[in-house]
Structures are given as structure tokens and as C-alpha cells.
């Protein structure tokens, strides 16, 4: 299975390992979660300049007003540094939580007893933990295992507890604490390892947030939380093709996977699922990569390797959760992950990825798909610096990016004056940001009946963008992909630096 191979260009010379890292461009996208440590205009500017392409707003805690202030700061920061950033609304979904309203650390000792209760009026302590699920006592039984972890699942034995159910009475569940740990933070996530939780994927709260805050702010992306137990993971594995067909992209929540699957199985799921996303041409984003950077300036060796391997596997993006939301080094977390991504991309065996995707495309290949793959092949053969896609819908840019070109895809997104769609050109541009390698450039508007783009101004916009970003030098070659009428065409130009 190609998805399980180490896709490294051979040979990787020792000299390349010893040489200093080159700062600059990387194709993999970084999603940053904005919160207490990353919501000021100054810090958000730093995150954008470090390489954040998507800002995630997690509605599992804090109010809509709080998130609105953060979003307003993001908009100001984008203007200040002249960078686009997509907005992702992350729903709560069927998540069981303990709200630690006091914020005080809760220390639990192995072999002690703790009471889990549905009575939310109780204050969390080492003796009692109130959970936002009234049917808890109905779905667990004696001997079941319950996991309670620090916000966003660290999985660390010092910050997460494993409980064994001893008894259920009315709405209360008495548990034996299996390991000593200190729960820190305002929210702890509860995971029932054997029980099936019948809760909707989209809760009434989620629907309310989407219809109000999400609609008001015209958010670009909505992520749906899903995993509630081992059965859900099995269901997801068995029906992954169907899920992928309906979704515009997939986020792999490895915090959940690490609890639901044996450790030795997590990598298999990650590699095979990313491969399926690549073949479908839909972005795959992984989470939980540099947890140690919540408190430290550098990731562990294993974490750095994990990020690189994800890039080599074909991931489109890396999602940083607690690292940017409440971590001490939000900007450094983004820049460090970006440098690792750049190094991995520099040795990635793009030809293998290209062949795998081509091999798995249904035949006969559509005209657009054939030309898009030819654009990538041409860029490789002529050693082009960039591929420029002239598009109004964004579809052409996604098709080109699907074939994993080793160079940036500059997507000049225009808007049609006659379009009846609710999405503006700017919104379509932002929605391209989670896709690996695509860097959207805002074009002008076109009249009804005109060709898909006005070529000369659009090319100039793209070349100016690439030149200012340092990815196009005078006399570099660029491959152009565009639709004219019902046809897709590819051509090669030389950037004369004028």
C-alpha cells in the first residue's frame, strides 16, 4: 500500500541533514485555534505571518460574544498584515464534559472513589464530578471504563484519569480511580469506552450557533465532531468512503482515535484514511501533533517526526488546538510546525504520490481532470516555479492541487457579476485555504458572457503575488491552467520580471 510507504525522495544525502534549514514557503496548511493566549491583534498578526491559514473557533467553551471579539481582532490583523485567513467554526457535537467552573486544579489519587453525577449544580472536586449528560447512569454498568482528560485529550497519565465503574444509583455513578492525576483547566472531556451514547452529531446548541454566529459572520468552514465510542470508530472505518463522499474535507481527531483504537492501530488508520482523501482530492487535516509545545518552546523528537511523517503521508494540514489556544508559545508553535513541514516537503517523493492518485482515478478520466493532472506533470518537467490557476469557482485549483504538485498553486479567484450564488469571490478564495499547496489571490469581477477570467490582469496579479512572496524570480517558468468556455487548457510562460 503506497499510503503506508515512507514517501521520501532518494537519496536523502547527509549533507541535506547537516545544512541549515531554509526559512520560507511551505505548502502544508496550518490551522490555529484562537483563544485566551492567541486572541490579541498582535499575537494573531504573528500567527498569520508564521503561516496560519485557517483560524479555528471552538464553541465547546466560552460565549459567542467572546468569540466575536476574537474574530473582530482576526479581521483587523488580516488587514494589518495583508493576509487571507479562513474562519472555521468547530461545533461541540456529542461531547460529554465536566465544566470546572472554578478553574482550580483537581487532584485525584489512585484507589480513591469519585462520584460522577448529572447534577450540574455540584462544584467539581476530587470527590464529585458533574457531567453534562443526564443519562450517564443508564448507559454504563459495573466494570465499564471511563476516561476523563484535560481539554482536547492530552492522553498524559499525569493529566488524565481512568475510572472503573463500581455502582450506579439514580443519576449518580460511583467509580474507582485507577491512576493518580491532576485535572487542570476549565473543561475536561469524558469518554465512555464501552457504552454507546445516543446523541445527535449536531446538537441544538450547535444549530443555534451556526444559524446565529456562523451565519452573521459568514464563516468559511464548519467542522462536525463525531466520535463517541469504539463503535463509532468502527462505523467510521466501515463507512469512511461514504463519509468522504459527503464531506468537503476530513479532520482526524487523533485524541479520540488514541482512546478508541489500540496504539498500534492508530498509524494504520491515519495512513490509509489520508490516502483515501488524497485520491478523492479532498483535504485531510490531522490534530494532536506538538502537545508538548503547550508548555515548552520546542517539540519532542517524536512529535517533530510525527509532523514530518504526516506530511510525507500526504496530509493537507496540521491543526493546532491547545498549542495555540492556551499554550505559552502560539506563534512559535506555528512557525516550528511550518519549518518541519517545509523540510518534509523538500524530500517528499512527489512522483509516487502523483502516480498513486492517477492510478486510482476512474477511467475514462474527465477532460478537466486530465488537463489538471497534465498541468502538474508539465510543471515538474519544465521545473516551473508555480502553477497559476485562473478560476471563479475554485474547482480548477482543487483539481490541480489534488495531484500534489511540488510547487505552489496560485489560484486567482474572480467573481462573476451575474452570479446568483451567495458566495463572493473572497469567500471562495478563503475556502481554498485548507487545501495543501493552494494560495488564493483575489482577482476582479467578470461580466456575464465573458471568458472565465480576464487573463492579463489575473496573470499579473498572480506573478506580483508570487514575486512579493519570494517564490517567483525573474525568468522563472509558470504553468497556467484555466477554463475557456467548455475547454480546459494548459500553457507555459516565462515570468520576465517586469
TrEMBL record:
The catalytic activity of this protein is classed by the Enzyme Commission as 2.7.1.40
The UniProt record lists the Pyruvate kinase C-terminal domain at 369-484
**Molecular functions (GO terms):** ATP binding; kinase activity; magnesium ion binding; potassium ion binding; pyruvate kinase activity
Per the record's keyword annotation, is Kinase included, yes or no?
yes
Q: Which cofactor does it need?
A: K(+)
Q: Which residues form the Pyruvate kinase barrel domain?
A: 234-334
**What pathway does the UniProt record associate with this protein?**
Carbohydrate degradation; glycolysis; pyruvate from D-glyceraldehyde 3-phosphate: step 5/5
What InterPro entries does its record include?
Pyr_Knase, Pyrv/PenolPyrv_kinase-like_dom, Pyrv_kinase-like_dom_sf, Pyrv_Knase-like_insert_dom_sf, Pyrv_Knase_brl, Pyrv_Knase_C, Pyrv_Knase_C_sf, Pyrv_Knase_insert_dom_sf
One Pfam assignment: PK_C
Broadest EC class assigned to this enzyme: transferase
Keywords assigned:
ATP-binding, Glycolysis, Kinase, Magnesium, Metal-binding, Nucleotide-binding, Pyruvate, Transferase
Instruction: Spell out the reaction equation it catalyses.
Output: pyruvate + ATP = phosphoenolpyruvate + ADP + H(+)
- Please give the family membership noted in the entry: Belongs to the pyruvate kinase family.
Protein name, per record: Pyruvate kinase
Give the classification, highest ranks: Eukaryota, Viridiplantae, Streptophyta, Embryophyta, Tracheophyta
